[in-house]
Amino acid sequence: MHIFSHEETKTFHLCNDEISYVMTVLPTGELAQLYFGRSIHDRADFSHLLEGAVRSHSAYPVDGEPFLSLEHVKQEYPSYGTGDFRQGAVELLQENGSRISAFVYSGYEIMAGKPALEGLPATYTESPDEAMTLIVTLVDQVAGAQLQLSYTIFREGGILARSARIKNCGSHTLRLERAMSLCLDLPDCDYDWIQFSGSWARERYPVSRKLTVGTTAVESLRGHSSHQQNPFVILKRPDTTEAHGEAMGFSFIYSGNFSISAQVDPYQVTRMLVGINPEWFSWVLEQGEAFQTPEAVLVYSLNGLNGMSQTLHNLYRTRLVRGEWRDKARPILLNNWEATYFDFNEEKLLQIARKAKECGVELFVLDDGWFGARRNDRAGLGDWVAAKELLPEGIGGLSRKINELGLMFGLWIEPEMVNPDSDLYRAHPDWCLHVPERTRSLGRGQLVLDYSRPEVVDHIYGMLYKVIHEANISYIKWDMNRSLTECWSAGAAPERQGEIFHRHILGVYALYERLIKAFPHILFESCAGGGARFDAGMLYYAPQAWTSDDTDAVERVKIQYGTSYGYPVVSMGSHVSAVPNHQLGRITPLKTRADVAYFGTYGYELDLNRLSDQEQQEVCRYTAFMKENRELIQFGTFYRLQSPFEKNVAAWMVVSEDRTRAIVGYYRTLNTVNDCFTRLRLQGLDPEKCYCVKDMGSFYGDELMNAGLVTSERASEKQGGTVLSSSDFSSHLFLLQANE
Ligand code: GLA
């Protein structure tokens, strides 16, 4: 890892064993992008990579100087209006009404490690030798603004973390109308763009298309990252597969409105922009004030999509997630939501917990409905005081009784929301986002509290602190069940209303930070009507996230498969639930439900008392299996093998760091008859090692990765066992152990 800075040519080259990132200062002072990709030799002068042309209708700041048209130069942080007609990274409204800006180079600084971003989630280092950071400073003298572009290269992995900071250094008020976190101009457009889209109960399905001239984009304007789109996009070469080829990931460490776009110009240059959605965003910068963008992470891999995902998994698992739980195998939990919904009392909960304990569960989680007048989803949100008619001794009493059973206790909260039918709302009707005299649109019967106001965050903190402090709480599920509407704050001046979406999410982060600091031992799981806030921003506060409200095993293979492109297995909340499945009525075998849920945090979302004795024994075995294997599954290297979006059979696997153990999850949706012969080519094994595949025999790693594992029914029968049961929705786990 090194950052070269060549004073004479004003060229910067950040590199490690995997990647190089090269920039230079143009004669006119703007910062130009020269190269991003596999690591290359350093040289003092890369200016031959600067491409320009004299073209009709283009604008040139120096007449006849072809290399200086901003329409053709690849740039680091462009703005519209001085020759570049593409979307810019920054837009600054000045007092005279002009939005033209020109940031020119003024200096740089290189430092060991990586500075934190105040109030924002970001990747970090634990020792300064893990990364190096380059901060390039540019100024716009006319506007009186300073721009600082920050680039961190890590010692390990093809990763570059970026953010920008804009400061008003002049004597007039400025208004920031756009401040992206990352701009990357790539020299061609021969890429497939992959986004992760969906809706409630079908989050993060990969959707792919070829880039072509024009703009391809995903965004959220819902106030959270959303079910619909995810702040993560991949560009891959057309021939890149899971195992081979070039791929880049663009991940945004942010949980609010975002935009990720690829704009391909007529010369096939691709401009990638990642940042806060400029729609509905503006930020007033008074003299001396600065705006810090969230961080965007750029990942590069030549080892296919799996290589790209693994780089991101490692980074997020070890240097984004924080706290005591980061490196710990996650407890097996039982959540009462699908077991009881709102219909419970203390005795019923204890009955469920007792059986859970018998089946090896470690953590009992009480979901929605325990507080205020919350007997259904129309009332009570905002009143974080236990309902005495359900829990006579409050949360303190219940947590004690749960602990006495030998279980940890966890609790559900939804602190950003308020029901109109609540004491909080009656006392503070202006504490929700709303516009005076206009309708306050309800979602699931609730309104969104205005977290841009510190006094609101303070008040909620006070209530939650009391509940948590008076009980023994090991885990919190933090939910968020509606998108933001009428986003206006009674606490902000008219000219600052464009700040509210961002200030709101800063308030959410601030509350998380306070609770984490006050209760560092608590394991947080984020949730938003399932997976509507499954983003890298949340992982900084909550090491795991509820992946989806859809707990059906067949659907979950798709959702977890899609989620794995950008997020580690250990971050995915995954539970075995009852059948018929509550979301879509499907009946799947208990074994299949467990075989899918293992690839995540693992838990149960049902009343185990309602299972037969035989099923309960099965559950005991499954729990024991997960306890034995969770280190491998949650911290091993994950490979996608066969996509559920393409075939009737899906597969993935995890391999231990020393490559002596592996588990392959193999799932078939519909049963087949007289089917084709099938083989599954594994990945990530040691070619020299001989592996015993349980019930199948012993095979060398090179054979399993090249010839593949024979999975056809007939072949496995010959080996003395059937791989899959002869029914729909069946699954099998192949357990691999290297022979001594
Ligand atoms: C959301 C969550 C569920 C459950 C309910 C409770 O839908 O995703 O898991 O907690 O809220 O109301």
Describe the overall structure.
The structure is a single chain. The protein starts with a strand and ends with a strand. The strands form 7 sheets. Strands 6, 7, 8, 9, 11, 12, 14, 15, 19 and 20 form a 10-stranded antiparallel beta sheet that branches. A 9-stranded parallel beta sheet has the order 29-28-27-26-23-22-21-31-30. The relative contact order is 0.09. The longest helix is centred in the C-terminal third of the chain and has 23 residues, at 613-635. By secondary structure, it is α+β, with helices and mostly antiparallel strands. It is globular, with a radius of gyration of 27 Å. It contains 13 helices and 39 strands. Helix 6 runs parallel beside helix 7 and helix 9 (553-563) runs parallel beside helix 10 (590-597). Helix content is 19%, strand content 30%. The protein folds into 3 domains: 2-319, alpha-galactosidase from lactobacil brevis (Beta-galactosidase, Chain A, domain 5, Distorted Sandwich), CATH 2.70.98; 333-635, Aldolase class I (TIM Barrel, Alpha-Beta Barrel); 642-738, Golgi alpha-mannosidase II (Immunoglobulin-like, Sandwich). The structure holds alpha-D-galactopyranose (GLA). Residues 337, 367-368, 412, 479, 481, 527, 529-530, 546, 549 line the site of alpha-D-galactopyranose. Alpha-D-galactopyranose binds at residues 337, 367-368, 412, 479, 481, 527, 529-530, 546, 549.
